Amino acid sequence: MKKSRFLSTLVVVLTLAVALVGCANTSAPKSTNSASAKKDFKVGLVTDVGGLNDHSFNFLANKGLEKAASDLGITKGVVESKQMTDYETNLTRFAQDKYNLVIAVGFLMQDAVEKVSKEYPNTKFMIIDSEVTDRPNVASAMFKTEQCGYLVGVMAGLMEKTPGIPNALGKNTVGVVGGMKIPPVDDYIAGFIQGAKSVNSDIKVNLNYTNKFDDPALGKQTALSQIANGADIVFPVAGGTGTGVIDAAKQKNVYAIGVDADQNYMAPETVMTSALKGMDTATYDIIKDTMDGKFKSGDVYFDLSNNGVGFATPIKAVPKDVVDKVNDVAQQIKDGKIKVSNKMPAGF
């Protein structure tokens, strides 16, 4: 009887011990699995034809991806498109390789994203600068760049009216070089023209499109022609082509306004400010949301109100009263007192 009770007690103790060991062991793999899950979360980025060295939108999107890899521990992949026919192939490659999120950089990739996202419904996609609203697995990062275009336009218009500014200002003429006549380009330009004319109704705006985002030599040639025709401020909205515009401004000792990123480092005495587009922030945020199970399809907007667009700190040659005026206009846009349209003004 005693022996039977002893054996029963021993069985209970051993059972509890095994259970406790099992419970203790479940906590360790969780930490390992969490780290593994982050590493196993794969994000692929497909560039537009401008490539990573465009100092502009591809560069910024990749910057956001790099930050996600550093901060969140994800696995990243990048492929540069050499021509527009590469878009579908490159997007498909990441989807076939079971990437959790595939990022398409640029409006020109819309058709490819619509097709590939339909073929791979279990893969999440993000496209920058284009609206794909009928796919539950596609997030569209949209930027109200007409707002930051307006701000740098105000600065350009005021600089043309300010006496005594160096670098040949005073011709009351500015040049704008667009990459292609597509909405993400024209949104910037529409805002710029409105902003410049809001403070300087007589200002002349020379506008040319290169139809290229990856041709600095063509950008330089176009800008040199504009400068020869009186432009003493040039504003490129042309990806990698715009680097040639900045080079032309530096060569001819006039001013340039950068785009997308703060491009002052390319010519510190020439680039007086830049219209900023937070594609790095948008890329990082959507990656993180997707990791956290908070992926949201459809349009995700970035504007002045959430610091999605803005303008870079101007150089010292820009007078304080001009900077103060631009800051005041920015606040009025945030407050809804100034409405900026993304429609091109009549005549352009």
Structure, described:
It is globular and about 60 Å long. The protein has 10 helices and 12 strands. 47% of the residues are buried. It folds into 2 domains: 40-143 and 281-291 and 296-302, Rossmann fold; 145-276 and 318-334, Response regulator (Rossmann fold). The strands form 2 sheets. The protein has a 6-stranded parallel sheet with strand order 2-1-3-4-5-11, with helices on both faces. The protein has a 6-stranded mixed sheet with strand order 7-6-8-9-10-12, with helices on both faces. It starts with a helix and ends in a 14-residue tail after the last helix. With 348 residues, the chain is of the alpha/beta class.
CATH homologous superfamily classification of the largest domain:
Response regulator
Radius of gyration: 26 Å
Strand content: 15-25%
Mean pLDDT metric: 90
Question: What's the number of helices?
Answer: 10
- CATH topology heading of the largest domain: Rossmann fold
Approximate shape: globular
N-to-C series of helices and strands: HEHEHEHEEHEHEHEHEEHEEH
DSSP strand count: 12
**CATH architecture title of the largest domain:** 3-Layer(aba) Sandwich
Q: Uncertain segments of ≥5 residues (pLDDT<50)?
A: 1-33
Instruction: Please describe the biggest sheet, giving its number of strands, its sense, and whether it closes into a barrel.
Output: 6 strands, parallel
Record the strand order, biggest sheet: 2-1-3-4-5-11
Give the N-terminus to C-terminus distance in angstroms.
Answer: 103 Å
> Helical content, roughly?
40-55%
